[in-house]
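Lab notebook, design round three. We kept the backbone fixed and only want residue identities now. Task for the bench partner: fill in a sequence for the structure below.
Input structure tokens:
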């Protein structure tokens, strides 16, 4: 998002970078009075995004496509793949791998919440998390929750609940059809059963732009309600911009054929800087 990014580690040979924008968000997490809880939540957020992106990267690697790096930013994560899988089923699996990891992490958090609760089963813990997640999408669901946590376990349960909610939100949001988000890529892979890659990309871009407009309107509404709607506006802008970039990439690929490599991105909204305005194309 900003031009500055810092390498923090390497996982499975893939460099992981932290964008300055996410550093600002992490500082906001730990700037409150509950420093250690904020720090734990900030670390959980960074780890969750990284594992989500690794889901994409390692699945693509299984199909022979390498990942240049993973960048974590304010608006999400980006696994920069050197070439996207061209077979529809490979693209589908690569796109869905990230949300699958997020949902797996969420269910691990729910299991932990259940384990540390004084009363209530796994279903009660799941209902508690689902009600919070659906509430962020404006869907109010009332369940008779039977989940109770002792005072001694309150902080641990709170952390596990946050971890479960955050990862479930990450999984659901990435499945929305805002191409080139994961859901948009899944949609394109389905369209490729019936049409060419270029036409499927164009259709996915159009649907993604409709979603971007709706998301922007939601963001404006949230701003007037005093919430963090500006993040939704930034996400909408990135979807609008990156969808066109992906379409141009598909057009160039169709025009020049297979002896070319392309810098592709998965998971929204991607890290970006001034040098990435143009599609990177190079000869093998």
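Proposed sequence:
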């Amino acid at each position: 998002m900003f031009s500055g990014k810092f390498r923090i580690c390497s996982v499975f040979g893939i460099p992981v970078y932290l964008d300055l924008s996410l550093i600002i968000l992490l500082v906001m997490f730990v700037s409150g009075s509950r420093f250690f809880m904020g720090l734990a939540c900030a670390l959980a957020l960074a780890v969750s995004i990284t594992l989500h992106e690794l889901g994409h990267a390692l699945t693509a690697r299984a199909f022979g496509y390498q990942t240049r790096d993973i960048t974590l930013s304010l608006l999400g994560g980006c696994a920069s793949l050197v070439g996207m899988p061209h077979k529809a089923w490979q693209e589908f699996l690569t796109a869905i791998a990230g949300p699958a990891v997020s949902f797996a992490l969420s269910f691990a958090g729910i299991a932990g919440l259940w384990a540390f609760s004084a009363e209530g089963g796994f279903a009660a813990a799941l209902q508690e998390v689902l009600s919070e997640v659906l509430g962020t999408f404006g869907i109010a669901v009332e369940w008779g929750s039977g989940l109770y946590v002792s005072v001694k376990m309150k902080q641990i349960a709170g952390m596990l609940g946050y971890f479960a909610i955050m990862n479930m939100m990450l999984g659901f949001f990435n499945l929305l059809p805002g191409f080139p988000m994961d859901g948009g890529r899944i949609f394109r892979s389905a369209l490729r059963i019936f049409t060419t890659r270029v036409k499927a990309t164009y259709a996915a871009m159009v649907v993604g732009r409709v979603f971007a407009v709706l998301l922007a309107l939601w963001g404006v509404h949230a701003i007037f309600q005093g919430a963090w709607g500006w993040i939704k506006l930034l996400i909408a802008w990135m979807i609008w911009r990156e969808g066109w970039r992906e379409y141009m990439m598909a057009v160039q690929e169709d025009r020049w054929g297979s002896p070319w490599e392309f810098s592709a991105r998965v998971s929204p909204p991607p890290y970006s800087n001034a040098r990435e305005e143009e599609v990177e194309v190079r000869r093998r």
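Keep this in mind before ordering anything: Residues 5-283 form one domain.
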